[in-house]
Design goal:
By secondary structure, the chain is of the alpha/beta class. The chain is built from 13 helices and 14 strands. α2 runs antiparallel to α4, α4 crosses α13 and α9 runs antiparallel to α10. The relative contact order is 0.17. Belongs to the peptidase M20 family.
Length: 415
Amino acid sequence: MVMEEKKKLTLAQQTAEMVEWLASFGGSKSGGVTRLLYSESWKLAQEALKARMEEASLHAYYDDAGNLFGRLEGSQKEGRAILTGSHIDTVVNGGKYDGAYGIIAGVLALKYLHEHYGRPKKTIEVVSLCEEEGSRFPMTYWGSGSMTGLRSFDDVYLLKDQEGTTFIEAMEKSGFGKGKYQHPGTAHFDCFIELHIEQGEVLERENKSIGVVSHIVGQRRYNVTVNGESNHAGTTPMKWRKDAMNTASALIQVLMEKSKRMPADLVVTVGQMIVEPNIPNVIPNKVTFSIDIRHSDSDIIQSFCQEAFESFEGLARERGTSLDIHKWMDEQPIKMCENLNELSTTILQTEGTSFKEMTSGAGHDSQVFGQFIPTSLLFVPSHKGISHSPHEFTKTEDLEKGINLLIKILHKLAY
């Protein structure tokens, strides 16, 4: 499609076209998308986006991690730029909108602003962050983390994917990590605005068009290992058993019961379990299970963990078993910028657009940027809350409402 034809399309048509276009890079027969960091489909998508940015009169450039930027230069040479965007990578067989929508919205918003208002006073940039999901390598937020300094090349040096390819090998094969490109860092930017699908069903259920996020929840993740003793399932009396599964089941029940007595928005999930020796007629001698705990108040998370784990020790001793509790994630809750949120809500109230102030139960690049620069995270509805799936879907009219809001925010900030 040539540029003249694209100009004739409405914003809604441009949005729908660009969603399908970007989903073709790594698209599967089931309608899903697999676009893992530094893979061939990832590289093709970034290169195609670079061409789209240039077509929209943006100066497109990479940094050394593979983050792609499109810059709309402002007339004021002094001062930092406004940044918007999201991540280009996906989970395996994920959806068309997660991450991709924020990039599409940024490109279309900057294109619209340039065509209708010309050059801004303040520079605006859209970023296609190279990675957020952690789907290929055991590292999340590499894109935003490398920009902010929370992640470094030392952190990824020993990482490998499931095929045995090292992070460094994959990065260098894609042309990055060699010092060829500059690394702008957050000192270059004044604020970050991320437009994203909700990945939940609150907005759809409550018939709201926009979610204005006040906080991104903190997350703690643990692996709990219960050590017992294997023995014959038929000849070992119940009172003499040191059954790791029996203990694990009791501990999980404690977690769920205690969670009900905490604030309603605290969530606890046990999503993974490994049983050894995992034989039908043998008493398990070892069970390892995961715990995922989330809330917007770190004190509430701490209080819950302390109370639960104190109960764990007693229950394990009663059953003749022992415990090992390993904490492997501790992400603090991040508050979004009140001034940016007030700007969004003022625009929405003036236009009569329905919205909801809410917390985000999922992690986003905004929680990384939010530790360094003023940050705003905005949601549009997700149909039935489905995400990380080929069935992920948001109506084009909802996508368009989000982009229109982004256009107005950027206009207020930059023109």
